[in-house]
Amino acid sequence: MRRTRRKGPVPRLSVLALGVVCLTSCAGSVDVKTALQVTDVSTGWFDAGVVDGKNKLVPSVTFRLKNGSDRDLSAIALNVMFKFADNDDVHDEVFKQRVVLENKQTELITVRSQVGFTGEPPQTRLEMLQNRSFRDQDAVILVRQGAAQWITLHRVRVERKLLTE
Fold first, then answer.
1. 138: domain range?
2. Is residue 130 part of a domain?
3. What pLDDT, in 10s, does the model give residues 65-105?
4. What is the pTM of this model?
5. In the chain, what is the greatest distance between 2 CA atoms, to the nearest angstrom?
6. CA pair distance 93, 112, nearest whole angstrom
7. CATH no. for residue 156?
8. Is residue 137 part of a domain?
9. How far is 80 from 65, CA to CA, in rounded Å?
10. Residue 20 falls inside a structural domain
11. What is the per-residue burial (b if ≥16 Cβ within 10 Å, else e) of 107-130?
């Protein structure tokens, strides 16, 4: 079977679509690293309950994103990596495909790792945080708009503070 191509003028709809693509791409992109600010940051270790008979703590970070630019930001994706502070190895990461900015900011966003530390009873959760073998972690907040590259927006040490909510 043979395909045939249409000869003659390009349909008007195709020209119009091409023009729209050119206009949106030529309008300039927003520098997300400059436009977005991380505010209202709090961290700690969330009490994830008892798992397999052991107390479990997971790192947690809560924050808000604010758009400080005069441009509209849409299609913002978020990736939060929890990294060990002593060697920068990634312990876990949490991906959110879409973050909504209403009135130029997000609601408070809480991100918790699924991976954490466990302690044998009778060790309490507070004692776990004080244990000399406990490894501190940093929460690294990365964002991207559309299909752009991931940009590190903020890095914060997870406080050795017990969170129950």
1. 30-163
2. yes
3. 999 999 988 879 999 999 999 999 999 999 999 999 999 99
4. 0.80
5. 82
6. 9
7. 2.60.40.10
8. yes
9. 13
10. no
11. eebebbbeebbebeeeeebeebbe
